[in-house]
Design goal:
Elements: E1 2-4, H1 7-10, E2 27-30, H2 34-47, E3 51-54, E4 70-73, E5 80-85, E6 91-95, H3 101-110, E7 113-114, H4 126-132, H5 139-142, E8 149-155, E9 161-165, E10 175-177, E11 182-184, H6 207-211, E12 220-230, E13 234-242, H7 245-258, E14 263-267, H8 269-276, E15 288-296, H9 301-314, E16 323-325, H10 328-352, E17 357-358, H11 368-382, E18 386-391, E19 396-401, H12 406-425, H13 441-463
Parallel strand pairs: 2-4, 3-4
Antiparallel strand pairs: 1-2, 5-6, 6-12, 7-12, 8-9, 8-12, 10-11, 13-15, 13-16, 14-15, 14-18, 17-19, 18-19
Bound molecules: flavin-adenine dinucleotide (FAD).
């Protein structure tokens, strides 16, 4: 295994896409096998050296930013080990953690298959996606990464290897009985909507779900088996513009019940203002937009297109400026339009040299309008730069505040807490897909309480008794003392 101590190499592992500054580490290790990881972790546990697991670094909450100790980069564990189709048509891929989402999607497509989780950032690795339970626009139809993980291999900080198949260990009233240990799963109530905040918890949960979404705090995921599905049929997709935001919300609300869509993505007026720099043909009077997709039989395409147009007209879309296509190449341009937005936000974050304060809140559909009003009231009164975009089909939007000064940063954190408190009152979650990382402890606590934070610390110590993995991620390390 290669270990680098040269600061010029280490430097690129001191950041992710959160804008969190001040990362430091003494070395970066590049394991080439699970055995390398076992040996490395045993030594680190013995020396109580903190270890931060690094995926592709596309995380937006600082999970892979180290504050001392070693970085364990999985970039050399990047092989697709197998893609198999059984006689009953079910298909799986077995991959190492450093395979990117893009690589897996391309390899699956060559066999007429698809990997359904669809995070916008396809350079992220599957290990990182499992560790954060990533999802994306098509999560509206397919759900998050969790739904597709059938088996994991995980190396604990002691060097012990757990191989966990879905269905192998199921808790009974939160109690797990494993050959090596009996323990109680975290006990707190999670909202029954899309959620990536804190360790998974349910009275009858599967052990594999504890390790999905653990953000590198319980063990190193070294091998992943995921379910694949047959490649979808033809897709129709469009971007529709609206003269006011509430018309776009009404459109999604009626389309959700009328059409079995793949995705609905929202752009508010400030998102469109940013995108206009690169997409000048966005209609000048547009104040909101919705990107939508649907998979259809080729023969039913015309009918599907008609159905979308009818709904758009009923809901006052700007009818002479709808971008619509049944062509895969053009649809890729729509997806690039969607992807361009978080990238533009990240550019501003880098220029400002202050982290963005980005919500990842989701609420139940019946609370969506209340939550939108809460955002607008809070942001307009603040006078700070902000924009709102994201997965409106699941009532899961990213409201990003872009502070320009330290004072604005402090004020925006206070605003965030206010919004999280409102979301929790409305039955929502503080994080539906990005996880907690090092930036959102306070917000997680607002959701699961101090007792819930202590539950996470208790469970972490069961699997990482040396307390070396992913310190300050999900919970402050002070809670581990
Ligand atoms: C432009 C942009 C768009 C994005 N869009 C989405 C989106 O649509 N949906 C979404 O969910 N996310 C999105 N993200 C966030 C990010 O892509 C995801 O959080 C992703 O899952 C991170 O994967 P990564 O490989 O980059 O992990 P990293 O950022 O390197 O790490 C993330 C966390 O996982 C841990 N980790 C990584 N690998 C392992 C492993 N093998 N074992 C144990 N722990 C591990 C790390 O320690 C860290 O805590 C976006 C990010 C960007 C920059």
């Amino acid at each position: 295994m290669h270990i680098k101590t040269d600061q010029s190499i280490i430097a690129s592992y001191m950041e992710d896409h959160s804008g969190l500054l001040g990362g430091k580490a003494d070395r970066v290790a590049f394991p080439e096998s699970e055995v390398d990881i076992i040996n490395f972790l045993r030594q680190a546990a013995q020396d109580t050296t903190p270890v931060t697991i690094a995926g592709a670094g596309t995380g937006v909450t600082g999970g892979r930013v180290p504050f001392g100790g070693s970085v364990l980069s999985l970039e050399r564990m990047n092989r697709i080990l197998d893609i198999t189709v059984d006689s009953d048509g079910s298909a799986v891929a077995i991959v190492q953690p450093g395979v990117s989402v893009d690589e897996l999607k391309i390899a699956a497509a060559k066999k007429g298959l698809m990997y359904p989780p669809d995070p916008t950032e396809r350079s992220a690795w599957i290990g990182g996606n499992v560790a954060t339970n990533a999802s994306g626009s098509r999560g509206y139809k397919y759900g998050p990464t969790r739904n597709y993980v059938k088996r994991l291999r995980v190396v604990l900080s002691s060097g012990e290897v757990l191989e966990i198949y879905r269905g192998m260990y199921i808790a009974q009233d939160y109690i797990f009985k494993l050959p090596s240990r009996t323990f109680q799963a975290p006990r707190y109530r999670l909202p029954k909507i899309k959620n990536a905040a804190g360790y998974f918890s349910a009275p009858d949960m599967d052990l594999i779900d504890l390790f999905i979404g653990q953000e590198g705090t319980l063990g190193v995921i070294t091998e992943i088996e995921v379910q694949l599905l047959p490649l979808g049929q033809q897709c129709v997709a469009g971007i529709a513009f609206f003269e006011n935001e509430s018309a776009s919300w009404r459109f999604v609300s009626s389309a959700r019940t009328a059409i079995a869509a793949l995705s609905f993505e929202y752009f508010d007026r400030y998102s469109l203002a940013l995108l206009r720099e690169d997409y000048p043909h966005i209609p000048p009077r547009a104040q909101a937009a919705i990107f939508f997709e649907q998979d259809v039989d080729a023969a039913a395409t015309d009918c599907a297109v008609q159905e979308w147009y009818t709904l758009l007209e009923t809901n006052n879309a700007i009818m002479d400026a709808i971008w619509f296509s049944a062509n895969a190449r053009e649809q890729e341009i729509f997806r690039e339009f969607r992807h361009a937005l978080p990238e533009k936000v990240n550019q501003i974050v880098k220029q400002n040299r202050l982290p963005k304060v980005g919500t990842d809140i989701a609420v139940p559909p019946e609370s969506f309008i209340d939550m939108m009003h809460a955002y607008h009231e809070a942001f307009e009164a603040s006078g700070m730069q902000y924009l709102i975009f994201g997965h409106i089909g699941e009532c899961h939007l990213h409201a990003n505040i872009l502070p320009k000064t330290q004072e604005e940063f402090t004020a925006s954190r206070a605003l965030y807490l206010q919004l999280v408190t409102r979301a929790v009152q409305l039955g929502g979650t503080v994080s539906a897909e990005h996880g907690i990382g090092k930036l959102k402890h306070l917000f997680l606590e607002a959701m699961i309480g101090t007792a819930g934070m202590k539950e996470i610390a208790r469970v972490k110590k069961i699997f990482d008794p040396a307390c070396i993995l992913g310190l300050d991620t999900i919970i402050p390390s002070a809670l581990l003392k």
